[in-house]
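Q: Can I see a sequence and its folded structure?
A: Here is a first one.
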Amino acid sequence: MHFQTFDAEYVQRLTEGDSMTEEHFASYFGELLFLKLRSRLRSRQLIEDIRQETLLRVLQILRKRKGVEHPERFGAFVNSVGNNVMMEYCRFESRHDAIEERQDDPADDAVNLDGPLIHSDIQRIIRRVMDELSEKDRILLREVYLEELDKAEICRKHKVDPDYLRVLLHRAKSRFKKIYIEQGGNAPFSLGVT
């Protein structure tokens, strides 16, 4: 292969889209890029991708900016664009490979072996706590938290106003919490009482 020199006229024809100049450009620089990349990369597909991307970027740069500042250095310009493209592709490939290599198998959240045991322990403690509460507190907590009845309905049922219902509920929760802790309930369970 013989090396060629370039001038402003060649770059101008390439910028304007002259088909013969484009063919020469693709053939000449395509072969040079192939020789350069072949010694650095193993993947034929990667070499071809970098070649095509380099040629495309050079044409885009020429047509957007209307040429290059130093047409006599056109070969060096194409070479530097090729180096940049190669580094981008290699950086992407190495990041992609490194991520794939470091990934562990994801944890299977579908199967929680401890969940049912913890849940049954908490349920057992809650049942014991509820049994120790007064009937009035037990009914109130059940209606609010388990049956999720409307507070207006609970007020009518117990013949209290909303402000007093809040007081009754606060007292019932405080008693529940006290007994819950005494029963050994240290699991993250809360009825909104601090």
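Q: Show me another, different protein.
A: A second, unrelated one:
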Amino acid sequence: MNHYGEQAQNEVFWRGLSSYEQTSIDLWRRLAATASVIVDGGAHTGLYSLIAGAVNPSATIFAFEPLPKVYDRLVENMRLNLFHAKAEKLALSDASGSTTFHVSSNVVGSSLESRAVEAGASAIVVKTVRLDDYLTRHRLHGVDLMKLDVERHEPAVLRGMGEVLDRSRPTIITEILDNSVGDQIAEAVRNKEYRLFIVKEGEGVFPVSALSPPAGRIGQNFLLCQKKVARELGLR
């Protein structure tokens, strides 16, 4: 990967993958190795997409990143690795079209949700797409594995992939920033036989009954998967 001076790149460069989201990345690596269609929602510069391509070169990988400058870096990293993953300058959402994207001073915190960024953040117009529409356009039936890190817009992404959830019930690793987002995500997958797990970096993956980040923590990864996948991962 190119180094752009960001914290995650510093940690990976100096200390290796085990230094950054250690448990989440190990989980992602294991899941990506057997997935056929993989979606990286909020790909940023592509760390998770690159890992998926490295462990499973035959997988079909779609990396979505709407912010032009960051998208260009994502494409550069894909080219460096000669992966066939497809980078898309699109934001996953619940409507296909275009809308305002709020650009935070800390770029990784940028979001389609105005409440997710600081006052005075700049704004640009980006193209959006429902994942259901995108897959139909590419004649794909479903998704096996998905990463979601879109700064409080995760519920909208899930609303835009209702057919995918009904049809293929992909395994999802998602960041959740607050209880409201967690509650909406839980509602989106209700009655679809998903099991819920909290991912505690450096500690492990543990079952939970609600998608609630620990008090005082900003950003928490969770795993949503079917019982069969949980069993294959050795989770109870």
